Amino acid sequence: MRYCINCCIHLLPNDLHRQCFRCRGPNHNNQKCPVCKGENKTPLYTDSKQMKLLAVLEVRTDHSESWNGFFCLRKGKLCSLIFGLIIMTLVMASYILTGAKHGLLLIPSPFHYGAFTSNPSLMDNESLSDMKDHYQPSKMNISYVKDYPSIKLIIDTITSKIEFITRQRPDLEELRKQEPHMFSVIPNKFLPNSKNPCWYEEYRGNTTTDPYATNSYALYSKRFRTIFDYLRKVFWNHLYHYKDKHYRLRCLPHFYIIGQPKCGTTDLYDRLRLHPDVRFSAIKEPHWWTRKRFGIIRLRDGFHDRYPVEDYLDLFDLAAHQIQGVLQSESAKERGKTNNIIIGEASASTMWDNNAWIFFYDNSTEGEPPFLIQDFIHAFQPKAKLIIMLRDPVERLYSDYLYFASANKSVEDFHEKVAESLQLFENCMLDYPLRACVYNNTLNNAMPVRLQVGLYVVYLLDWLTVFDKDQILVLRLEDHASNVKYTMHMVFQFLDLGPLSEKQEALITKSPASNTRRPEDRSLGPMLPTTKAILRDFYRPFNTKLAQVLFDDAFLWKRT
């Protein structure tokens, strides 16, 4: 049997060359065909021991005539095709890796929002999952952000829409209509001989009654059951007896550490509670004003029963027992001694988290909440003191991401989430005013990272509509980290706390920092330079306004 090397195809002995596409045609002449000429043919004998291996590899067998032409391609052309594909693959891989290195990965744009609703009746017939579906992204509205200039256009659009408009403060009667039970429990006057706001409340239970049997904090959290077990044991020892009636001392905090998360509030809390005149709630962050009073434990889990104000007040019973001990001491009775112990509460959500309003309050204007947390706190405690710890919002956001992201954390993933969140925020700002977007629950839950928490000035201006400026102390984490002693002295002075011994001061100021970044998160390193530049541009107008309000250019965070 003979084979034609040039045709690269298996040929039967009786029709040599007829299968070759080069030899087809009615006018074919074997002598004139360059392929079929004898000098161009390289006959191989299959029964010869001298047959070369490479020649055998050139043999192709195909029983389908439709593919014969394809297999007649020369080896050089096939190699060229393969080589071209390899080059193309290498070029694409180089592009993708280069984009990842510079933080310019392809990023899908978010969706346009549906209309915000301020009508609670619409939500009564929908579950939280239904509401979430109502605001799901439009999959047909996906684009990709490839580079810094593209995202910069989004930021420019947001900046052009920023307006800091003073909100209208609701009157007291409107607040009473919203929370009648709360106003029935908390009095409008407190004990005159106590620096901390406290009052006596009649207790109608008996010795067999468990005063904390229905406390939601004890029921829903196993961590706090030990605390309440202790409170049950000592409860009856701290009742005040007067004219055959039992009274318990109730207290609210004298001061609140209201924010912001990942800004050093835990470290401030840990140091401040070492002061002999300071007590805190039994739970560091009750989140009662912002979440628990609405029945929110985790918004994605839906609503639980609302935590009544009595459950919140129970958290201050340990401190109330100590204050009562001071008030009932002999020296206090004889000399009219005033209690100097003060109570603090450190929920870092208090300053910014008003996400629940849309489910409970109507009569909103342009999607803005008609009532905020500070309205109710001020209604009960017009003299309350507020402490705010802030940090560079760019670094705060990255720290927030590292702390709360559960898996697949990377600087590239952070970059993508920032870009997507910016586009979501832009979509809202195109249709609604700034405050409506900042306080919008649906938007805040949709954003992959919490951009809105770093808009400090928006929240601060709203707190200043109800509280005087001298009732609010604003600190920077950067200053606190570099000089703990100085910032703690500022806090002590702000709260009118008594002097400390050198030993007490050293204990407070020289303790190691609390709640620092986890080792596994440190290994990720800093965010991408492109991401940082994007966030600097986004937060710049808000930082500028904050520095103007506080008369302090340090809040521009130019050096961080």
Automatic annotation (TrEMBL):
<dbReference type="InterPro" id="IPR052654">
    <property type="entry name" value="CS_Sulfotransferase"/>
</dbReference>
<dbReference type="GO" id="GO:0019319">
    <property type="term" value="P:hexose biosynthetic process"/>
</dbReference>
<dbReference type="GO" id="GO:0050659">
    <property type="term" value="F:N-acetylgalactosamine 4-sulfate 6-O-sulfotransferase activity"/>
</dbReference>
<dbReference type="InterPro" id="IPR027417">
    <property type="entry name" value="P-loop_NTPase"/>
</dbReference>
<dbReference type="InterPro" id="IPR000863">
    <property type="entry name" value="Sulfotransferase_dom"/>
</dbReference>
<comment type="similarity">
    <text>Belongs to the sulfotransferase 1 family.</text>
</comment>
<dbReference type="Pfam" id="PF00685">
    <property type="entry name" value="Sulfotransfer_1"/>
</dbReference>
<feature type="domain" description="Sulfotransferase">
    <location>
        <begin position="253"/>
        <end position="517"/>
    </location>
</feature>
<keyword id="KW-0808">Transferase</keyword>
<feature type="transmembrane region" description="Helical">
    <location>
        <begin position="78"/>
        <end position="97"/>
    </location>
</feature>
<keyword id="KW-1133">Transmembrane helix</keyword>
<keyword id="KW-0472">Membrane</keyword>
<protein>
    <recommendedName>
        <fullName>Sulfotransferase</fullName>
        <ecNumber>2.8.2.-</ecNumber>
    </recommendedName>
</protein>
<keyword id="KW-0812">Transmembrane</keyword>
